[in-house]
Amino acid sequence: MGSLPGRDQRVVFFDGRQPVFENHDGIFNYTPHNEIRQIIAFFTPEDFSTEFDYRYRTNNYGLVQDSDIGPGRDSLILLGDSFTEGQGAEPWFRQVSPVISKLGYQPINGGVLGTGFQQWLRLGRYLASHNIQIRKVVILFISDDYHRPVWDFPAATLTCLSSLSSCHADESYFYRLPPPRGMSTWIAKVRTAREPPRMHLKLKASALLPASYGVYSHLRQQILFANAERDSRAAISELISMYGPRNVAFIHLPQKDEIVSGPHNLGLRARRAIEDAGGRVFDGFKLCQMKAVDYYSHDEHPNQSGYRKIAVCATDVIKQLVTAERRED
Questions:
Q1: C-alpha dihedral (264, 265, 267, 269), degrees to nearest 10
Q2: 3-class state of residue 40 by DSSP
Q3: Among 131, 184, 196, 295, whose CB has the most other CB atoms within 10 angstroms?
């Protein structure tokens, strides 16, 4: 493949017990006790290639974890997005789970793809409502998480994930996995649905719109981001207040496009918000030593070697979080 495809060229397929995801209390997780297969492909005008194809299990709360979790036990949870979930490779939580158990805590993988600080706060509350006793929290975040709002799945997407015949290529981002021989046909449908309009149609349409429309769209997007950042700041403050400053650690992980340039301003603002709220930020750019080869070629997620590095630096922070309190006590 030539130039790096963007998100518009990415197609995400899921297989597993329907409908793969479920909404609850304004957020979502996977369906409990499910065996899930996820495939991500990227297409070009002529062909497509599979970036990754892997399987994982979910526990009794629909979290990406082999073991079930139970109420009334002191627990240590990792909160985060797809990097924490381990999207794209064998879940790296399997490497840190035994360490957490040896430290005397029930391990919980609270990583959920596409989520941010507000959603992690809600997940903690949801688990607490089921008497899951969270005592220690390690939050792994990337810069983009700071302006992510709370969201859940539209009914049309859940229907599509239940039955491929109910999918509309132009109405969803996630699709039910087709039979092997139907993969190329289905990707062709998605490619057609996402084709940009012809240039003359673009020019014709733009002539019909008021000149201020582009400015309005830009301002609207900026307002949405500003509101999400405001809510993220509030969520960060509440997370620290809820669990106590000694019991929470934040790790800022690098995105693929930050490896050379360093953290974006968005991520730096997230760090300041954490520090202003009395929290501790660990610099994952230095601790994890991620390089460009630790990410997939076209997708923005870490590959197996990248997740191994995250597991190592997360383990170090987990040990510091637990042992520091014991030394103080």
A1: 170
A2: strand
A3: 295
Closest CA relative to residue 250, chosen from 142, 153, 161, 139? 139
CA 329 to chain centre: 35
Domain ranges for the chain? 1-58+154-195, 67-151+200-328
Tell which residue, 314, 232, 319, has the closest CA to residue 276: 232
The conformation of residue 168, written as its DSSP 8-state character, comes to: -
Q: Which CATH number fits domain 67-151+200-328: 3.40.50.1110, 3.40.30.10, 3.90.550.10, 3.30.70.920?
A: 3.40.50.1110
Could you report the per-residue pLDDT of 299-329, keeping only the tens digit for each?
999 999 999 999 999 999 999 999 976 666 5
Cα separation, 19 vs 165, whole angstroms: 13
Residue 112's closest CA among 159, 65, 68, 75? 65
188 HSE (CA, 13 A, CB side): 7
**CA 245/CA 236 separation, integer angstroms:** 11
Q: What pTM value is reported for the model?
A: 0.91
